[in-house]
Amino acid sequence: MGRGEALAALSGAASLIDETIGQFDTVEALGMGRTRFERLDTLIREHWRIERYVAWTRWLLLLALHLAAAVPVLAAAGWGAFLVGEGWATPGTAVTIVLYAYELRDPVRRLAQWTEEFQVATVSFARIFGVEEAAGSREGGGLGAGDCRRRFADGGGRRLIASAWPAPPAS
Asked: Do the Cβ atoms of 108 and 61 come closer than 8 Å?
């Protein structure tokens, strides 16, 4: 379970909303509104569950990274205090070792930063390629979202669902 599954759930919710709005006449005529809302609620709950899991694992990773960066500094400070207290080292030596340990934190932080940047870039590329694939699947001469020709009418041309779209302009 990860970011890809969360994006898939969110994408499913977005496409369900898009289809429901785009085909409002059909959804209304067939009485599918409740079913659509129930499916949307399910997709949103799934997305929320996955996002919470991802946030929890990220929190654990960041906690581990912070501990990995802080423990050497705290250990050096504690050991240096012990050695200075026993008279086996000077305060300057202890401070020098603590500062060296402190400076070793930077590579760990940079590694975490570059890992995060790589993950963000991967998700961004996935979105770009996903949009490209979706655009290719829509080539087929379908009607645009603002096209008023999408409506139900009886044999005489009388609109059956008047609330879905405004009447087309008289030609």
From this structure: no
